[in-house]
Amino acid sequence: MYNFEFVKPSTVAEAVSALGEEDAQALGGGQTLLPTMKQRLASPSKLVSLSGIADMKGVSADGGVLTIGGGTTHGTVAAEAGAYPALADLASHIGDPAVRNRGTIGGSLANNDPSACYPSAALASGATIVTNTREIAADDYFQGMFTTALNEGEIITAVKFPIPQAANYQKFLQPASRFALVGVFVAKYADGVRVAVTGASEEGVFRWSEAEEALNKEFRPDALMDLKVAPANMIGDLHGTKEYRAHLVGVMTKRAVTAAG
User: Fold this and answer.
1) What CATH superfamily is the domain 166-260?
2) pTM surpassing 0.70?
3) Which of 7, 35, 155, 176 is least enclosed by beta carbons within 10 angstroms?
4) Quick check: 218 and 206 in contact, CB under 8 A?
């Protein structure tokens, strides 16, 4: 590591002010940023910890919407998001106990790792990303691998998830990292089905519109029998070829629909 300044504000306003200083970086649970710093892939001169901001923590359900503070850990989501069982189950399988007790939903969504689980849940749920300045629809928030609509110094303070009629998340685990080799989140609402895929595409999390159209007509795994994802834009690496990931998208979507139905 190297020398840097560390501050721990107690309010969002204090955090925003600290992040306005040159070369300052927000720190959520540190599960991505700290390893990056150790490898010298990032070297901010000031870390602004968000862990002391009480207003950014907690889970609540009201009017068919589950609201989760941006500083809420995966472990807390797993334990307290019972109003949205599929989301609670997703959180319970992120990383290992150490990661779940430190990592936060806001940190995960801000980083937008192409294999992270939460982006698929947010996109499939039509969630709203709440920041210190505005609200962003999930469809507008995710803009590519490690890229989001967040501006410099903008903080995710909460995430609002409309609670679906039925939902499920299926993750094909990459055992070394415990990230998703391919993960599919399916959510069924009164106005339609949404399907979001993580871990598979070179462009990050995406909605599988063809599957949504088929499932809107018939919410059964058989509705997907003739559908395939083109492998051209899939990730290909030592863990799986483009074709393998494209195949897994179909398999995991069928499993998610079966479990949700």
Assistant:
1) CO dehydrogenase flavoprotein, C-terminal domain (3.30.390.50)
2) yes
3) 176
4) no
